[in-house]
Design goal:
349 residues; 61% helix; 3-stranded antiparallel beta sheet; alpha+beta
């Protein structure tokens, strides 16, 4: 301590003599001096007055003749002045340590600048006093190196996605290394991740390209769905049209079948009626007379339908024609009544 102060005075005097850079050398030297001083000297320790009051959430480390004696808990505590010395005072509250901004290189060779915050707590005042010179500074340095090493295993695209994983990895690494120091790291939070301007521009172009890609995909999917809907509509229309035609043909066929059945029933009824009439008294004579009459009328209609007419040779002999009609009449009489009735009905139809 005594040798460091003259060095500081010499540095200040030399900086004043040069008349340049005098504003920067004093603060830098002061910072270096503070870093060289032990942590116990930077932390103000109370004077042993014999009767001491330890505050809540504090732990006082007491030495007797330069050797560790005990750790005082909160409350009223008695010590022997001069013999007992309050060497270290530790706060048992949760401490917040800022991790200064630093640069790190990702797996795909992109340089990032990031900083963070550590939340610590002293769990063993004895280890925090004698395990390391400055536990808080040591944890901050460990956090920086761990942060750089963890970022080296990640690519730029996964840094933002794996941010929570990165925080957990830093906490685990600090807890493993800080266990002999009597500290535990509760959590670590990365505050800012700053990228170079060139990388930011590339990421913006990538985001723009991704948006255009999604827009094109959505547009193509919409066109595809519209085409499918039109095809489905046409298919449905054809199916409904064919079903309508099938139903129409079925209805027509059913109508024709019903008409045929109705016509057949009517024909059968007519045949039965004629047959019953033939079987009645005088029915055979009436049928024979009707056939003979129609036979003679048929010859009369031949000349009306065509210019060329074939006539029987005995057309000038009425008696012969009557005899021929009588022969037909006799033949008809020998026929079955149902057969004759059927012939008559078919001829009329």
């Amino acid at each position: 301590m005594m040798t460091t102060v003259p060095m500081l005075r010499g540095m200040v005097s030399r900086s004043v003599a040069t008349a340049t850079g005098t504003r920067n050398l004093v603060p830098i030297a002061h910072q270096r001096l503070l870093q060289q001083r032990p942590y116990s000297q930077r932390k103000k320790t109370p004077i042993n007055t014999g009767v001491n009051f330890v505050s809540q959430q504090e732990a006082w480390v007491v030495e007797r003749f330069g050797k560790f004696k005990e750790i005082l808990e909160p409350g009223l505590r008695f010590l022997i002045p001069i013999i007992d010395e309050i060497k270290y005072v530790h706060s048992l509250k949760e401490l917040v340590i800022e991790i200064p901004s630093q640069s790190a290189i990702t797996q795909d060779n992109v340089t990032l600048h990031l900083d963070g915050v550590l939340y610590l707590r002293v769990v063993d005042p004895f280890k925090a006093s004698y395990g390391v010179e400055d536990p808080h500074y040591s944890v901050a340095q460990l956090a920086q190196t761990t942060m750089r090493s963890e970022l080296g295993t990640l690519t730029l695209d996964t840094v933002f996605k794996e941010r929570q994983t990165l925080n957990v990895a830093i906490v685990d690494a600090i807890n493993q290394a800080a266990e002999p120091w009597g500290l535990t790291c509760l959590r670590c939070e990365i505050r800012d991740i700053m990228l170079p301007d060139r990388v930011v521009e590339d990421m913006q172009r990538q985001v723009s390209a991704e948006r255009k890609k999604r827009a094109a995909i959505l547009e193509s999917e919409g066109t595809q769905q519209a085409t499918i809907n039109v095809a489905e509509g046409k298919k449905r229309s054809v199916i409904l049209s064919s079903e309508a035609d099938m139903a129409k043909k079925g209805n027509l066929a059913k109508g024709e079948a019903d008409a045929i059945v109705f016509k057949a029933d009517a024909t059968a009824k007519a045949i039965r009626t004629v047959a019953e009439a033939i079987q009645s008294e005088g029915g055979q004579d009436a049928v024979a007379l009707t056939i003979a009459k129609e036979y003679i009328e048929a010859f009369g209609n031949i000349a009306k339908e065509t210019n060329t007419t074939l006539l029987p040779a005995n057309l000038s002999d009425p008696a012969s024609m009557i005899a021929q009609a009588s022969t037909i009449f006799n033949n008809v009489k020998t026929m079955n009544a149902d057969h004759v009735a059927k012939m008559i009905v078919e001829k009329k139809n």
